[in-house]
Amino acid sequence: MFALVDGNNFYVSCERVFRPSLQGRPVVVLSNNDGCAIARSNEAKDLGIRMGHPWHEIRHLEDQAGLIGLSANFELYGDMSDRMMSLAAGLGPQQEIYSIDESFIGLEGVKGDLVARARAVRARILSWTGIPCGIGIGPTKTLAKLANHIAKTAERKPGSYPARFAQVCDLAITTSDELQALLQSTPVGEVWGVGGRIGAQLQALGIQTVWDLSRMEPQAVRQRWSVVLERTVQELRGVSCMSLDDVPPAKQQIACTRSFGSAVRDLALLVEAVSEFAVRASEKLRAQGSLAGEVLVFVRTSPFRKGPQYSRSHVQPLVRPTADSREIVKAALDGLKSIYRPGFDYAKAGVMLMEISSAAHEQGELFLDEVQGEGTSSSGEAQPRRDPQRLMAALDAVNQRWGKHTMRLGSNRLNAQAPRGWVMKQERRTPRYTTLWEEMPLVRA
């Protein structure tokens, strides 16, 4: 048995915890540089605002419908996610954090009324964090995901599903007739893993509902589409094909990219931005215990702005796989300088780490384990190579304790007093209530 705990309109819910005046108002959270809607309150959805809707196309609703647009506050959302996930873990003995607002819980061995237990955990999450959530329960991960959709839809749209499924839905205790009715009432596009392209193909063949998909012959599905969709069909039939992953697999590529808040022409500013991105990617690499063998860097102009266009990338191989920020930043900057051309208004840059391997299998190489450029002893003998892992561990520890950028590479901020002209626009960002002392809300008697 599996449960899926999912925060409702998570980014908006995080904002409402600290600003109760947003309750009942149409609210959207905007993407980088306040470009488009990446989270919507139910009231915003009722206005017809879709996911990814450009802000400039809906901004008029500020005056017409009282729409509130907020810049993304990812520090706040990440911290609130940690709090919610720690409480969701009390539902069962195993947990797989699937995304910032979703968590699968393994319920094997859990006794008693699972619905009552789920409602108690949901109430605790709401009481302790202020985040409302829906919980779906099923014998497979796909059915648990589907049950979560039913739970949230039944709460938001009374009458769409039976009221008893609102907030918490357990498909394992429904009768066969009830389950069939639920699957027949749910469009096939709501199935986990059925994207827009496959959904359109299924509908063209007359497969309109989840029930229709569950009745398809698995072997035919595999031949026509893929083994992934075949597993989905099996899971809809109650055959568990996907296990619970307590630890997510290591990423095979790690990227850090950003659109700039304003156009950048100066190479020095690009050096600062690319250094920042390379450092952030290196931190993610070390966090999963991996090494990178190649560094890709790219810059490009905006196709939506007038003027000359330019887009280039460069892959810089490393001498040997590493997680050392210094080596990764140097490789990224070498690549940047080889592709930079003056006279362009650059709108975006990024760094991607590739050829990723486990740090547990790091292999030394002849001569590279002796000092190179770090000096020799008074007798002229080569000294042992200093361990970069210890240095990076110390750097990460300081920044985790005292805040990021407490210690940084020189190229990461060439002029600490100068404004960072390349940073994202976040004109509507709310305070980082839970991660910065300076922005913590104060209550005065």
Describe this protein with a few key phrases.
445 residues, alpha+beta, five-stranded mixed β-sheet, 15 helices, 19% strand
What does the secondary structure layout of this molecule look like, with pairings?
Layout: E1 2-7, H1 10-18, E2 27-30, E3 37-40, H2 42-46, H3 55-58, H4 61-65, E4 68-71, H5 74-88, E5 94-99, E6 102-106, H6 114-129, E7 133-138, H7 141-156, E8 168-170, H8 176-184, H9 196-204, H10 210-214, H11 218-224, H12 227-236, E9 254-264, H13 267-287, E10 290-301, E11 311-322, H14 325-339, E12 346-354, E13 357-358, H15 388-402
Parallel strand pairs: 2-4, 7-8
Antiparallel strand pairs: 1-6, 1-7, 2-3, 5-6, 9-12, 10-11, 10-12, 10-13
Helix pairs in contact: 5-6, 11-12, 13-14
